[in-house]
Structure formats: C-alpha cells, structure tokens
Amino acid sequence: MERKLTELLPERYLASPEVGAAAGVLWVLGEVFRARALDWLQQLCIDTATWGIVYWEREYGVTPLQGESWDDRRARVKAKMRGAQTTTRDMLAGVAAAYAAGAVSTVEELAREHRVRFRFASSGAFPRGIEAMTASLLEVMPSHVVFDYLFDYRQERQAAVRASAGMLLHVRFTAGGGLT
C-alpha cells in the first residue's frame, strides 16, 4: 500500500506551502528511485534482464548476434551457463532445453558411434535458434563426438531447416506424430 509523504506528516506541517512542496518533491524522487532500483534488480536475473543482458553476455563470453531478440540472447546465455561443466547427458539436455521452446528434449548417447542424438517432441513451436543451439553444443561437446537432431511434431507440414555449417535438415511433420 503506497502512501504519499504528505499523508504521513502532521496536519500542522501541511499548512506550510514550503513543507508541502518539499514533501511532494521528495515523494516524486522516492518513486523515481524505487522504479530505478526495481529495474536494476530485474537485471540480476537472466530471465528478466534487458539492458543488463550485455553484462551477462560479457561474463559468459557470448557475442550477441545482430538483430537477435531478448529471448534468444537470454537463451544463449542460459545455454552457456548450463554448459560450464563436464559434458554429461544432463548437461547437454540442459543446453538443448534452453532452445527447445517448450518441446520435450531427450538426449540419446550412441557411444559406439561417437554420436549424440537430440530428440525434440512437441505439438507446439519449433525450437528457435537451431544455429545458435548448434553453436552452443559445438562449444561444449568433445570434438570427436558428432550429433544430430530428430524432430517429432504433431502437425501436418513439411519444412527444410537450414542449420549452421551448411547443414540442411529435411523434416516432415505428420498429423499422428512420428518422424518420417
């Protein structure tokens, strides 16, 4: 419950125009300070950072891409945060989840083939930033391990998705689910 400073002063002070004017100015300054303090606190959380995202990116060594949205920049920083450890299945799942746009992602290790398979299943949005996700995975995975993506979406559509390094992924979405 917000109260103005003038509501907290005794009535005998309010009769003075100087005190009333000073109280009004102090209340406005206090509101400006409160708004700036709340904005600053939002920059301390990666999920709400806007102008402070540059500090997160600098701390984790992420170079922002031209025209990238706030959500994409946050996802890249989160992936870098999750990837700052030993490469494990859970860590790779965390990196992929940062880009999965609500899709359930599972990680399958194929040790004999030196391969990791990422499987995305959803009836919603396609994972955003396939190129950024690929770049993040390349940073954290050992160089001898290759990886691929499998997409299982429950919509009738066909798409060709261009990923980094010239890869072209052909994906067919079927009404009943399942990859074809």
From TrEMBL:
UniProt superkingdom: Bacteria
The name this protein goes by in its record: DUF2313 domain-containing protein
InterPro entries: Phage_Mu_Gp48
A Pfam family reported for this protein in Swiss-Prot or TrEMBL: Phage_Mu_Gp48
